[in-house]
């Protein structure tokens, strides 16, 4: 076809963290002798000025980094960062702490679980940055990540999706097949531990389709079983998704585009590329977290693995006509491989959810005709036995849909996938609305434009998700793209899709997160699971915040016959059904700041009380 699908990518523009360019100061003129003597006198008279000036120039660490590469050290753990201790959990709590799929929906701790969260692929990269004058607030990257996740939890957000790799060689991760830079790995360890600290769950993607460092094309270039390159890659040092212009124009540009499309598709069948991928999976699921000592496969902070973010095996090219079959075989092989190594976590694809030839009646819901030629086939792909739930992405701006058609498209896009997910031959599977957002150009990033253009898209998307939950449809939740994380002074952290903490959109997100929190925490764990039913308690006199376990509330909630009217468990069960109370499966969950019973968490007992109780 004359306009291959490669020109209309499904993913948003994704830019790696880059330090702003420093402005070179002109050389200073000679200072007259009088002023030099005066300056020296002032410095001697006011020595306290020296550390103040040094702090502003070099950062709190007293170090100055001339290049970004020199500032990448891995997370700086200050004396204030203390990894949280492993909570005392019962065998039942440990078993039920991993996410499961039960009866068309997610279940965790023997009750429904809904994702209300965001994408932030650059969290690992941010955590690598040392404290330096150019960072926002003169904080280290580790502090910025900590502040970001703490703020998210305080808003009721419970899930973050990120990459288990980085997107540029500036932030090292896997530097060659099976060879890793410990700075990147420790940063991933840190982000997982920080998420656990604030009660957030994490979805990790093993690899990215797009033209990134550590991505699909990198694996093919590493391969000894793939043909050697005959044309130079146009993607060197690329920041963000490729556009048609990057290939060039005319016959040479068309030849390069076809060459790269054919080479990219080799990833799904090339022996070495598949071996490298399997080794990467094995390395990650068996990694021992350097901060908390947990092996990744045993860490319930992780709730699911994406096999690949937004896969492309483009069948519009004659040499790629078998792409649908090639991709389906790859999914079957790799999902089975992950399951064999990690029986604890859910597995999903990470695709947009385009309909393919197996369901011609559903292709009407695709954004454009090119969507069927990307190798994806939503129903066929999701039917695989080791794919636990389906993912759907929505990028109507990138998919060239008219602005006035976007709300209706999004509603049909979500609804059609829930219907398809509920009628799979392999059994009903939940649908996660894993990526959605609203593109705004730089001149549209104003308070008024955000309110007029972005907020309505978030409101309508969340309304569709909430309607599906109320209707008991197979919806797992949603994750917006993306949270803006300012790391460097002068950096445009928003980009075209980012939501800043100060944007009006954040209030829309928080309202939805609170809805999801109420839905999830209005149901106690089923009594047969031998878990608790923890409720927040507040001592009005002392202000002490704590949590109390009332298992009778769970018994009364699920009882077929009503309990005694004066029974405390029955009263709490009635309050839950009326939306007047929240219940948590463990004391640790109840006491988590933001995601638990109190925004500030439970009160730490005073030393005096501890001595008295000892």
TrEMBL record:
Keywords: Glycosidase, Hydrolase, Membrane, Secreted, Signal, Transmembrane, Transmembrane helix. The keyword Transmembrane applies. Its main location: secreted. Its EC number is 3.2.1.78. It is an enzyme of class 3 (hydrolase). It catalyses: Random hydrolysis of (1->4)-beta-D-mannosidic linkages in mannans, galactomannans and glucomannans. InterPro entries: GH, Glyco_hydro_5, Glyco_hydro_5_CS, MAN-like. It is found in: Secreted. PANTHER family: MANNAN ENDO-1,4-BETA-MANNOSIDASE 1, PTHR31451. This is mannan endo-1,4-beta-mannosidase. It comes from Tetradesmus obliquus (Green alga).
């Amino acid at each position: 076809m004359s306009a291959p699908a490669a020109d209309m990518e499904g993913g948003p523009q994704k830019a790696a963290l880059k330090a702003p360019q420093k402005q070179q100061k002109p050389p200073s003129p000679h200072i007259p002798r009088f002023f030099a003597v005066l300056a020296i006198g002032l410095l001697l008279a006011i020595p306290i000025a020296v550390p103040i000036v040094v702090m502003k120039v070099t950062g709190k660490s007293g170090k100055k980094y001339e290049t970004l590469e020199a500032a990448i050290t891995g997370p700086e753990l200050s004396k204030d960062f203390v990894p949280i201790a492993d909570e005392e959990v019962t065998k039942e709590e440990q078993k039920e702490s991993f996410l499961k799929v039960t009866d068309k929906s997610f279940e965790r701790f023997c009750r429904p679980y809904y994702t209300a969260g965001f994408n932030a692929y650059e969290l690992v990269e941010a955590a690598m940055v040392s404290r330096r004058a150019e960072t926002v607030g003169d904080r280290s990257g580790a502090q910025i990540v900590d502040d970001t996740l703490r703020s998210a939890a305080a808003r009721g957000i419970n899930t973050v999706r990120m990459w288990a790799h980085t997107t540029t060689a500036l932030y090292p991760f896997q530097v060659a097949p099976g060879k890793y830079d410990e700075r990147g790995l420790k940063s991933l360890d840190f982000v997982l531990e920080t998420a656990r600290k604030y009660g957030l769950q994490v979805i990790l993607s093993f690899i990215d389709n797009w033209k990134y460092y550590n991505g699909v094309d990198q694996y093919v270039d590493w391969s000894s079983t793939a043909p050697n390159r005959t044309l130079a890659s146009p993607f060197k040092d690329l920041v963000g998704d490729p556009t048609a212009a990057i290939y060039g124009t005319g016959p040479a540009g068309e030849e390069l585009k076809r060459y790269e499309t054919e080479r990219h598709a080799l990833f799904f069948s090339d022996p070495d590329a598949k071996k490298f991928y399997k080794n990467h999976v094995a390395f990650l699921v068996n990694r021992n977290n350097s901060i908390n000592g947990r092996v990744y496969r045993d860490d319930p902070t992780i709730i699911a693995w994406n096999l690949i973010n937004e896969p492309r095996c483009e069948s519009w090219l004659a040499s790629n006509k078998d792409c649908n079959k090639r991709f389906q075989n790859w999914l079957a092989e790799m999902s089975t491989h992950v399951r064999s190594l990690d029986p604890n976590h859910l597995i999903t694809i990470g695709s947009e959810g385009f309909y393919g030839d197996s369901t011609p009646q559903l292709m009407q819901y695709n954004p454009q005709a090119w969507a069927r030629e990307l190798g994806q086939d939503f129903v066929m792909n999701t039917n695989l036995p080791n794919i636990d739930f389906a993912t759907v992405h929505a990028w109507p701006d990138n998919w060239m849909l008219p602005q006035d058609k976007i709300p209706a498209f999004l509603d049909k896009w979500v609804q059609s996938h829930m219907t398809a997910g509920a009628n799979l031959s392999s059994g009903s599977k939940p649908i996660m609305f894993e990526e959605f957002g609203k593109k705004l150009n730089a001149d549209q990033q104003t308070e008024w434009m955000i309110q007029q253009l972005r907020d309505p898209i978030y409101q309508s998307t969340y309304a569709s998700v909430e309607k599906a939950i109320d209707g008991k449809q197979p919806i797992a939740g949603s994750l917006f793209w993306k949270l803006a994380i300012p790391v460097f002074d002068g950096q445009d952290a928003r980009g075209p899709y980012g939501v800043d903490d100060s944007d009006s959109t954040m209030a829309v997100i928080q309202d939805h997160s609170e809805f999801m929190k109420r839905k999830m925490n209005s149901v106690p764990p089923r009594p047969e699971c031998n878990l608790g039913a923890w409720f927040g308690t507040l001592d009005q006199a002392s202000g002490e915040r704590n949590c109390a376990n009332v298992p009778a509330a769970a018994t009364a909630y699920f009882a077929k016959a009503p309990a005694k009217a004066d029974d405390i468990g029955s009263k709490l069960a009635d309050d839950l059904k009326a939306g007047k109370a929240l219940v948590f499966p463990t004391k640790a969950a109840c006491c988590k700041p933001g995601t638990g019973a109190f925004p500030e968490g439970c009160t730490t007992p005073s030393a005096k009380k501890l001595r008295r109780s000892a």
